[in-house]
Amino acid sequence: MRLDKFLSDCGFGTRSQIKKDIKAGQVTVNGQQALKPEQQVDETKDRICCTGRPCVYEKYVYYMLHKPAGVVSATRDDREKTVLDLLGNERKAGLFPVGRLDKDTEGLLLITDDGALSHRLLSPARHVEKEYECCLAYPIDEEQKTRLEQGVNIGDKALTKPAVVCILNEKKVTLTITEGRFHQIKRMLHAVGNEVVYLKRLRMGGLTLDGNLAKGSYRRLTQEEINLLSE
């Protein structure tokens, strides 16, 4: 692997910044000063340091983000702030959000560069559960709950798959679905005569939003959490 790509993948900045660090003598490979960004390195064996810090290579990275309202689930946008903008210095090439949350929706969002894991989590054939907290405009009744649990017509070719509904109070529920259709939660509640006024994703598969993570904050996943997603 090229030295500049390796350092970029490790989060040491853009390739242009890394080239400046190499030129300034701030990068060493096995104790020797690196001279060229195109120098080939073995990411599994070579001891590489940049600006005095050792570089540890990770094939993929995984972040749990507590998405706030007002940012879009995209890698880039010419007009709006994106979820990747919230990563600050840890943002690097190749990262993307797994799935989408609407601009006004809050909660759990996984950000990674692991395309295979993303495909598994989003594949319709795998029926990965996604749990949401929903605040409603009107009190929910047992008839609406039953219809949601049986599947409803939201204007697509097929009814939604049965949901799991837990009533927390008359205007607040948790709703668990195994699909990812466009605006699905909002369309489902609308179909039974209600409206969503606040929406927050709490869980995706085995990954649950960290209750200590403030809106707009993020952290690396633990190895245990990565394993849960990979099951």
Key terms:
single chain, 231 residues, alpha+beta, Alpha-Beta Plaits, nine-stranded mixed β-sheet, four-stranded antiparallel β-sheet, 6 helices
Structure description:
- This protein is an alpha+beta fold.
- It folds into three domains: 3-54, Structural Genomics Hypothetical 15.5 Kd Protein In mrcA-pckA Intergenic Region, Chain A (Roll), CATH 3.10.290.10; 62-123 and 210-230, Alpha-Beta Plaits; 129-204, 2-Layer Sandwich (Alpha-Beta Plaits), CATH 3.30.70.
- The protein is 21% helix and 25% strand.
- It is built from six helices and 13 strands.
- Strands 5, 6, 7, 8, 9, 10, 11, 12 and 13 form a nine-stranded mixed sheet that branches. Strands 2-1-3-4 form a four-stranded antiparallel sheet, with no helix packed on it.
- Strand 9 (164-169) and strand 10 (172-177) form a beta hairpin.
- The protein is elongated and about 70 Å long.
- The two termini are 30 Å apart.
- The mean pLDDT is 93.
